[in-house]
């Protein structure tokens, strides 16, 4: 039973590096040591002489939403634009020999001065990264109707920076590409087999009926395995050329340098409020450091952040300038939260500032701004009435008691799952067993638990007959992906829709539905369950911390109160909350990816990257609120909630204890250390 | 490339291989011996996904040469399961939800098994400290600690 | 991620090891491998071969020999954590060993390897300085002792000459009312040190400091002593004012640098506090150290 926990505890998981095919070649990738340079010559291995295409391809079949001049080339062409950018690939019968073969690659570079910050990118100094463009702005536009500044007594401004974070799932990226002369079969660690398939086809101009992408067991992803990477295309090209399976498994160093890190967003906020604390208007600027190329999620990131900027509050006027900007760093990608934590951070920091300015409690000021009815913000965010949830959350989190005892930080947010456009599910019944495929592919979130629960409820069959298979483009007509807190929500709805389709098949064939009737015969139902409306939910976090003599923060308590609609699997819900909370703590206290002034990566290993360890876990308190959603299973989104709420609460707690206003993450101990002894 | 005859015991079975000196123990376990339960999660000896027990000591098999295993006795995650029956530690991780994506899990289980065989009197803080060489990105560790506590109870026969 | 090819030698006895090491070209000693193998994997340098000395069991031991604690170079850092002789004679060594990397690394890593690798952030060099230890080095030409003060030359460079292998560490067991500690500050999520301080001191029965060694790590090209700071403590009781001066003097001789984990200014501030904390702790332990067995140094 692939993907299920028992095989994992036995060591019987089948991750992509565990798969061996006959005559398999191993690929190693030569990468740019410079953040920005002209590539004068390349020799050896497979390189730009073999393929000129960018990710997403050229022309008719290729992507049209981004200027082709700024797309990520599979092999570096005339320039390189980040340290670690792939330049060439070599192949050998084993991976040690493949790494040796990298010595055969010879590249002549002409170094250029890299552009490493948003400010530098916007200044125009050093010229645009890419020929064929006039600036480093990928996309920029205003969101929200303009308004006259209200004549409000309170006007507060501040600027924030959320630093980039490398996703760092324990299993690095990996792929095997195989070509049998007719079909290309890809085994891959991924969140979305269809994204990979579509990307490969458009990049290489492949016939989609000749490409199959199969998800191996996937050891975590958190966003970084949704994209199509150059290395994947290289492996497929090599399989086509050599007619042998080609395996590529990245090293952790490559993951730190060349996978798509998340976050990297700057926010400027201007808040207009009255003396009660009611926010009348918000003006904002959201700028994402999208890295060296357009076309990754970095391009759309600031718009998604901007859309959510008003959060769970009824703010009637809001206008935001959203900009994605290129720098000489790897392209930005989604990392658990993917814009949601940034938006909430910017607004919540202003709420705290507002409370401090007015001498009010932080929960009072938030309460005043909650809504008592459904509200659509000027930026397009739809929320239910937020007051009832917030009032309950403050009580469940014991905010009053804990803030007196311990200077607790509070965070309140809305989670916007990536509902659109919906999801596919297929259920096949055969020989008394039930096989399920989802368009979005689990990578640690244990989707099999909600699939089993929902199907056993819907079809009245025992859970142990049901298997959720890993993603496979041959098993479904199409599919979307697992990210953005969407899987239980739209994947669950698709599974129920497919189950209902199955039931009507049984009814047609047998006159009525029974579980026995279903299991004794063969049935197959596939559905694409489309959804376009937002389905947002609320959450709140509380945190208490201590700071030692060396400026080191320890999170003492981390409390969550989340509305999950319906907890389809309480164990899994709890696991998502704890795991996500530690990532939220990591963002604030430990995690970063740092370059020097030449653009060289200084973050050399997992401990430099700041991935939290067991000692970093606080005491957890979790309250699940279940206010059923309108979806058929009554559940709401969850996965990213802790990454949104926890950083806000922790940062506020640090602010309370240290007396220093915090405007960015990570917060370094040297910002908090006092010269004299505590 | 010169290879060296290397003889050792893995999960109770004798093994004789000709390996290049530079091959890491983790590569040989995974590739020559097909024991893919032991994983590679990093290249700087941080993550512990490669943990195995060699001559009674839990070590990172990515930071040992296979030729150094000559004459030694190795236990991998696969070796904890006996005749299909899960070891108490494996069972504990399964029952008390100590994993999500499963990639850190073999190393985490092997290390937990080793810790419990060293000393069952360590408290939660001590255990957490001793897991500093085993990273998990999914679970947030809390349930892993609970699994170790439960495994201890199973090993002591306090639970059925 | 994987090393370049090299030859592997596993001598069965020490004589063979010495021969090999002195005659073969471009070879390094492989002990625990917890520093060498990671460097080979990242292809930071190349070599022709490694001489694996871990088969020479007689190089791993801990024994008290009169006034000296003798530790074989191949003793693992894990073994240092659990040994009774160390607990009684040099508890700072146990305290430091517990803080090295993680338990998996300590099961393989050796005291000899930690000292010879001479990473400026390693823990044990500072402890050797604080204990006034000697390193015994043997080559085909004979044996010599090198005091800790002369052993650490540069980052990743010791006083060992080509062909010399570190075989033993000799630690003079402190006599009298003794207090010690090794304390380091590292990034909250684990990893290399920001600064570390090792303090060994002796006091009279009425609490005057009569002997003192302070060593620091991760704040210079090598572990280094703070001799002026030590002098400042002699004949005194460590009051807050005295400690202010002591810490300031220690920081003055340090040469911390800025890296992705910490700036040099932060390292100096941390070092200042750490020195005070370490001296206070060592002093309190000395006060509790009544019977000359130092196991109360906890």
Descriptive keywords:
heterotrimer, A: 678 residues, alpha+beta, Aldehyde Oxidoreductase, domain 3, Aldehyde Oxidoreductase, domain 4, 3 domains, six-stranded mixed beta sheet, 25% strand, globular, B: 160 residues, Ubiquitin-like (UB roll), DNA polymerase, domain 1, 2 domains, five-stranded mixed beta sheet, 6 helices
Describe the structure.
The complex is a heterotrimer of chains A (678), B (160) and C (298). Chain A is an alpha+beta fold. Chain A is built from 18 helices and 25 strands. The longest helix of chain A is centred in the C-terminal third of the chain and has 24 residues, at 487-510. The mean pLDDT of chain A is 95. Chain B is an alpha+beta fold. Chain B has 2 domains: 4-78, Ubiquitin-like (UB roll), CATH 3.10.20.30; 88-155, [2Fe-2S]-binding domain (DNA polymerase, domain 1, Orthogonal Bundle), CATH 1.10.150. Chain B is built from 6 helices and 5 strands, in the order E-E-H-E-E-E-H-H-H-H-H. In chain B, strand 1 (4-10) and strand 2 (13-19) form a beta hairpin. In chain B, helix 3 (88-95) packs across helix 6. Chain C has 3 domains: 7-52, Uridine Diphospho-n-acetylenolpyruvylglucosamine Reductase, domain 2 (2-Layer Sandwich); 60-172, Uridine Diphospho-n-acetylenolpyruvylglucosamine Reductase, domain 3 (2-Layer Sandwich); 190-288, 2-Layer Sandwich (Enolase-like, domain 1), CATH 3.30.390. Helix content of chain C is 36%, strand content 26%. Chain C has helices spanning 14-23, 36-41, 77-82, 84-89, 91-97, 103-108, 111-117, 124-131, 148-151, 227-233, 240-253, 264-288; strands at 7-9, 27-30, 49-52, 62-65, 68-72, 134-139, 142-147, 152-154, 157-158, 165-172, 177-186, 193-203, 209-217, 224-225. The chains are: A alpha+beta (678), B alpha+beta (160), C alpha+beta (298). Chains in contact: A-B, A-C, B-C. At the B-C interface, strand 4 of B face helix 2 and helix 6 of C.
């Amino acid at each position: 039973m692939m993907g299920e926990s028992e095989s994992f505890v036995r060591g019987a998981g089948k991750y992509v590096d565990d798969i061996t095919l006959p005559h398999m070649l191993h690929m190693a990738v030569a990468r740019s040591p410079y953040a920005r340079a002209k590539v004068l010559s390349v020799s050896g291995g497979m390189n730009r002489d073999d393929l000129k295409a960018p990710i997403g391809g050229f022309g008719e079949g290729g992507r049209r939403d981004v200027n082709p001049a700024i797309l990520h080339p599979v092999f570096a062409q005339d320039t390189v634009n980040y340290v670690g950018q792939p330049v060439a690939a070599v192949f050998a019968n084993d991976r040690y020999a493949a790494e040796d073969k990298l010595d055969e690659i010879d590249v002549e570079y002409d170094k250029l001065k890299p552009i490493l910050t948003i400010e530098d990118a916007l200044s125009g100094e050093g010229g645009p990264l890419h020929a064929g463009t006039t600036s480093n702005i990928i996309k920029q536009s205003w969101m929200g109707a303009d308004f006259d500044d209200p004549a409000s007594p309170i006007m507060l401004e501040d600027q924030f920076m959320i630093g980039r974070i490398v996703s760092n799932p324990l299993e690095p990226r990996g792929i095997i590409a195989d070509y049998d002369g007719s079909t290309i079969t890809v085994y891959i660690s991924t969140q979305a087999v269809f994204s990979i398939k579509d990307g490969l086809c458009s990049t290489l101009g492949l016939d989609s009926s000749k490409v199959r992408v199969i998800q191996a067991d996937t050891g975590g992803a958190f966003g970084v395995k949704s994209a199509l990477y150059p290395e994947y295309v290289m492996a497929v090209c090599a399989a086509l050329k050599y007619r042998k399976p080609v395996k590529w498994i990245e090293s952790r160093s490559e993951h730190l340098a060349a996978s798509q890190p998340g976050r990297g967003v700057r926010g400027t906020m201007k808040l207009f409020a009255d003396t009660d604390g009611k926010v009348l208007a918000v003006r904002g600027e959201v700028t994402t450091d999208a890295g060296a190329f357009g076309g990754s999620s970095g391009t759309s990131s600031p718009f998604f952040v901007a859309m959510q900027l008003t959060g769970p509050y009824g703010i009637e006027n809001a206008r935001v300038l959203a900009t994605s900007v290129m720098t000489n760093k790897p392209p930005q990608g989604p990392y658990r939260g993917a814009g949601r934590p940034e938006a909430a951070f910017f607004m919540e920091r202003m709420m705290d500032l507002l409370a401090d300015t007015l001498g009010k409690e932080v929960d009072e000021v938030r309460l005043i701004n909650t809504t008592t009815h459904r509200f659509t913000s000027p930026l397009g965010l739809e929320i239910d009435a937020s007051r009832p949830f917030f009032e309950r959350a403050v009580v469940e989190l014991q905010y009053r008691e804990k803030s007196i005892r311990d200077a607790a930080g509070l965070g309140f947010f809305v989670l916007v799952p990536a509902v659109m456009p919906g999801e596919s599910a297929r259920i096949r019944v055969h020989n008394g067993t039930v096989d399920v495929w989802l368009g979005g592919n689990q990578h640690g979130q244990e989707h099999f638990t909600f699939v089993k629960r929902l199907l056993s409820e819907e079809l009245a069959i025992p859970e142990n007959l049901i298997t959720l298979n890993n993603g496979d483009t041959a098993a479904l007509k199409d599919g979307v992906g697992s990210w953005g807190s969407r899987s239980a929500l739209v994947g669950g709805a698709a599974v129920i829709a497919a189950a209902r389709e199955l039931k009507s098949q049984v009814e047609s064939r047998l006159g009525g539905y029974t579980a026995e009737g279903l299991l004794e015969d063969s049935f197959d139902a596939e559905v694409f369950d489309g959804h376009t409306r937002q389905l947002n939910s609320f959450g709140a976090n509380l945190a208490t911390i201590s700071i030692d003599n060396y400026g080191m923060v320890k999170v003492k308590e981390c409390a969550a109160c989340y509305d999950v609609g319906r907890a389809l699997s309480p164990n899994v819900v709890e696991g998502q909350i704890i795991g996500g909370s530690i990532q939220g703590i990591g963002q604030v206290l430990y995690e970063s990816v740092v370059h020097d002034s030449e653009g060289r990566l200084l973050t050399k290993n997992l401990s430099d990257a700041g991935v939290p360890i067991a000692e970093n876990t606080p005491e957890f308190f979790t309250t699940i609120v279940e206010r059923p959603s309108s979806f058929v299973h009554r559940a709401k989104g969850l996965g990213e909630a802790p990454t949104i709420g926890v950083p806000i609460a922790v940062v506020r707690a640090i602010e309370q204890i240290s007396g220093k206003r915090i405007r960015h993450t990570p917060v370094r101990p040297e910002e908090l250390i006092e010269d004299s002894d505590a | 490339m010169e290879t060296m005859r290397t003889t050792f015991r893995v999960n109770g079975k004798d093994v004789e291989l000709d390996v290049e000196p530079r091959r890491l123990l983790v590569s040989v376990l995974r590739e020559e011996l097909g024991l893919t339960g032991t994983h590679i999660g990093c290249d700087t000896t941080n993550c512990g996904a490669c943990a195995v027990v060699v001559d009674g000591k839990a070590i990172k098999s990515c930071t040992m040469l296979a030729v150094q295993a000559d004459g030694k006795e190795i236990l991998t995650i696969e070796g904890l399961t006996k005749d299909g029956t899960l070891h108490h530690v494996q069972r504990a991780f399964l029952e008390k939800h100590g994993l999500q994506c499963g990639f850190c899990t073999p190393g985490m289980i092997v290390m937990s098994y080793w810790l419990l065989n060293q000393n069952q009197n360590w408290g939660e803080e001590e255990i957490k400290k001793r897991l500093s060489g085993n990273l998990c990105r999914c679970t947030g560790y809390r349930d892993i600690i609970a699994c170790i506590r439960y495994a201890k109870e199973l090993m002591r026969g306090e639970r059925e | 991620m994987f090393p370049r090819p090299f030859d592997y030698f596993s001598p069965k006895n020490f004589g063979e090891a010495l021969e090999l090491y002195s005659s073969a070209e471009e070879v390094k000693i492989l002990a625990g491998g917890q520093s060498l193998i990671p460097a080979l994997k990242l292809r930071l340098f190349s070599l022709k071969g490694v001489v694996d000395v871990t088969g020479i069991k007689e190089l791993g031991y801990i024994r008290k020999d009169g006034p000296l604690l003798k530790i074989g170079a191949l003793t693992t850092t894990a073994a240092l954590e659990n040994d009774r002789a160390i607990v009684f004679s040099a508890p700072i060594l146990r305290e430091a060993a517990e803080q090295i990397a993680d338990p998996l690394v300590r099961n393989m890593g050796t005291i000899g390897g930690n000292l010879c690798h001479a990473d400026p952030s390693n823990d044990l060099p500072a402890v050797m300085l604080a204990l006034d230890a000697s390193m015994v080095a043997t080559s085909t030409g004979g044996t010599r002792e090198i005091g800790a003060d002369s052993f650490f030359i540069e980052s990743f460079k010791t006083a060992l000459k080509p062909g010399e292998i570190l075989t033993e560490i000799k630690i003079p067991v402190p006599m009298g009312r003794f207090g010690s500690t090794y304390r380091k500050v590292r990034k909250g999520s684990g990893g290399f040190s920001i600064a570390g301080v090792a303090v060994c001191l002796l006091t009279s029965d009425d609490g005057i400091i009569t002997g003192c060694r302070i060593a620091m790590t991760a704040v210079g090209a090598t572990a280094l002593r703070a001799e002026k700071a030590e002098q400042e403590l002699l004949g005194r009781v460590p009051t807050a004012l005295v400690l202010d001066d002591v810490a300031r003097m220690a920081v003055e001789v340090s040469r911390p640098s800025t890296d992705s984990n910490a700036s040099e200014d932060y390292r100096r501030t941390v070092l200042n506090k750490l020195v005070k904390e370490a001296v206070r702790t060592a002093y309190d332990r000395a006060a509790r150290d009544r019977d000359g067995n130092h196991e109360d140094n906890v």
